[in-house]
Design brief:
Two copies of one chain form a homodimer. Chain A is α/β, with parallel strands linked by helices. Chain A has two domains: 7-44 and 300-395, Aspartate Aminotransferase, domain 1 (Alpha-Beta Complex); 73-297, 3-Layer(aba) Sandwich (Aspartate Aminotransferase, domain 2). Helices cover 38% and strands 13% of the residues of chain A. The first copy, chain A, has 14 helices and 13 strands. In chain A, the strands form three sheets. Chain A has a seven-stranded mixed sheet with strand order 2-8-7-6-5-3-4, sandwiched between helices. A four-stranded antiparallel sheet of chain A has the order 9-10-13-12, with helices on one face. A two-stranded parallel sheet of chain A has the order 1-11. In chain A, α6 (100-113) crosses α7. The longest helix of chain A has 20 residues, at 301-320. The first copy, chain A, is globular. Chains A and B meet through α3, α6, α7 and α10 of A and α3, α6, α7 and α10 of B.
Chain lengths: 411, 411
């Protein structure tokens, strides 16, 4: 792989970059090199305007009528249809609603009620904890009629068996960015008669996904990372079309009713994905996401991924020189095994990240020793990566060894 | 009760009104008489500014750091503390999170796991349907280990028995505005060893509530009606302090963990109300609500209620003259039995409401024959009510009898 070898070269690459215009659609803080887009994506001008319009022109002026005249009621489906091509799904298989946690609960509870004699949800030890907390809560609510088993990554495929009704995994590890083979694990689940639920929070908008092609059963994901939907923007869920009739969530509310405005006494699930809607959606958060999603009309995810690999390789290559200072790569070295962030390991990771933030390079820390840098090709430049690596070197050189002794390892 | 008897008198009353200045804090559409604040409250200038600040100054400029530096993380508790005095609760008993439906699920699932040998949730036939859909979903998820029984209003007290673990009611009927006696029903539930959950969606911000004084166990409510939080603004939930340790929701996620950022494998509920948090909250919707709640610092709910009764009585008195046209009062005639909206009945209710909306009077229709008018004293004037009654008379006089035959009853 050819990469720029000087800051000047980085700037030339940035001039030729297919996303140079895309960057202009973001309202960025020029004082920061922002490498935390996997925690909270940056603000687009479209989100500012779309939210203003919903608040002032729609809510303020047209009030309750906006649910119909401004299409609020259908936004969960409409935004789902915008996300569908990014994850390799059909428009009528994706819905935006609630939080990722609530959506995991809806899907896992639906799977629970269709489990037959199976009693186990299999997940990964070290999976994003909140996902597992949701599953554990469901198991407790079931009176331990089901159990949640978390096994190390290397054992997952082998541990899927006839007792497993659901495999729940995150395709990109939130710490190391290591990728799962989604196709193979999906096939393995199916070969044992289990269904699979993929949490795509760390990959949607960062790489191409192929849910239909790999025959994935279920998926969820958040929209405030690489989709730039804003803090706590609503999550999405995907249910493969042929499962939509047999599966109904255990958390049901009026927007998922087949006729919500008839106000009938008994719940009757809507046909299709609509049954996975919940209560009244937080429309202002939908507005910001709506604006941010418009960006994707003109974007080719293969180009996003290609630039992501370039930027990541550049960052890894330049930080490799710093390993004499206790820094090591926590992410896989091979691009094809890695998601869209780079994780480094350092015994003083917390202090190091604080020092970086003080210098205007924003990443984040995950205990005990991981520092994460998100690579967001839509608004990051080669020159940013070059400078971030320089600043990391400076910060490392100034770390106090006293703090090292006092704070490491974080327990 | 003395009421204005001419439009001129109404205008004099409006000049002396304690909420004349409050009205100026709303960004109202001057072309409308808005009587649908029980579906979606009006926009405040504070919500416009607070949302703009969160989007541009916080998200846009400070990005991920805003979770700490701008207090995003604590907003569920902070907004809960703002709502607490409006419902007669302590600050640490109220939390803002998710939707009303999700919050009902959290509480009902917590009660389910503490039910002992009891197996029944008792609710009202004709309760707001979505609440009952949530409970029905939970019963289905439990494999019918529990059941949901809905009985007519007059039978509720008598039907609470030793099989009942939870009574779930809405204090103001969403159609007729008829009030329950919250204190008596709470006592009745407790006398049978059951807990009670009150949905306060139609009363919070409209009248004084006394959850602690009546020893209510649980409550939920939405914030987009009389609290003006905006479309789908996040809901609140209340759990009496002494129940917070024993009760844990069946829907658990990282924000409810005792140490969310330690990312431990197993869920450990946070102490107190925090365990009732879910996934990452939709912050932009919190911002709008935050702005709207500031209004309440200077407002006495007794004055709100007093003006509400005046406006409602004026509306009922003036529309009573129209009963020759098939119109009748669906709400209780006595103020003390009525919430903060007035429901009328007409065989052509749907057409009548459409005709009113076309004339700039916005209320809503609930099948088969109810038209609702919300009385929101913070931004409604006596003159508005006077004119709305006149326009209702006009609309009635112009109703086409053909449509009557064709569309009534709505089925």
């Amino acid at each position: 792989m050819t990469l720029p070898t000087t800051l000047e070269e980085c700037k030339h690459w940035d001039e030729r970059d297919p996303f140079a215009q895309t960057r202009a659609q973001f309202k960025l803080n020029p004082q920061l090199i922002y490498l935390d887009g996997n925690s909270l994506g940056a603000l687009t001008h479209a989100s500012v305007e779309r939210t203003r319009a919903m608040i002032e022109d729609e809510w303020g002026h047209d009030l309750i009528r906006s649910w119909n005249t401004h299409g609020w009621f259908d936004m969960p489906q409409r935004l789902g249809a915008k996300i569908a091509p990014l994850i390799g799904a059909a428009a009528d298989e994706v819905l935006v609603a609630d939080s990722t946690s609530v959506n995991i609960f809806k899907i896992a509870s639906a799977a629970l009620m269709q489990r037959g004699t199976r009693h186990r949800i299999l997940t990964e030890l070290g999976n994003f904890p909140s996902d597992n907390y949701v599953l554990q809560g469901l198991a407790q609510l079931s009176g331990n009629a089901i159990e949640v088993l978390a096994v190390p990554r290397s054992e997952i495929a082998a541990r899927i068996d006839a007792s497993t009704f659901l495999v729940a995994l995150t395709d990109v590890h939130y710490k190391t960015a290591e990728l799962h083979d989604m196709r193979e694990l999906t096939q393995q689940a199916h070969s044992q008669g289990a269904k699979i639920l993929w949490d795509l929070s760390h990959s949607v908008g960062a790489r191409q996904l192929h849910l239909n092609s790999i025959k994935a059963d279920f998926a969820v994901g958040c929209t405030y990372k690489y989709l730039n939907g804003g803090p706590g923007s609503p999550a999405f869920l995907y249910v493969r079309r042929d499962l939509q009739t047999s599966h109904c969530p255990g958390l049901t509310a009026w927007m998922g009713h087949e006729a919500p405005f008839e106000f009938t006494e008994d719940y009757q699930p809507a046909p299709g994905m609509a049954r996975f809607r919940g209560g009244t959606p937080s429309m202002l958060s939908f507005a910001a996401l709506d604006g941010a999603l418009d960006l994707w009309d003109d974007i080719d995810l293969r180009e996003v991924r290609s630039k992501c690999e370039n930027l990541s390789e550049l960052f890894i290559a330049r930080t490799a020189n710093l390993t004499g200072n206790g820094l090591s790569l926590a992410s896989p070295r091979e691009s094809w095994k890695r998601g869209s962030h780079v994780a480094l390991r350092h015994p003083q990771g917390y202090e190091l990240m604080q020092a970086l933030i003080a210098r205007g390079v924003i990443g984040d820390f995950r205990a005990p020793d991981i520092i994460r840098f998100a690579i967001t090709p839509l608004y990051l430049r080669y020159a940013d990566i070059w400078k971030a690596a320089d600043i990391l070197g400076e910060a490392l050189a100034h770390l106090s060894p006293t703090e090292h002794v006092a704070r490491n390892p974080v327990t």
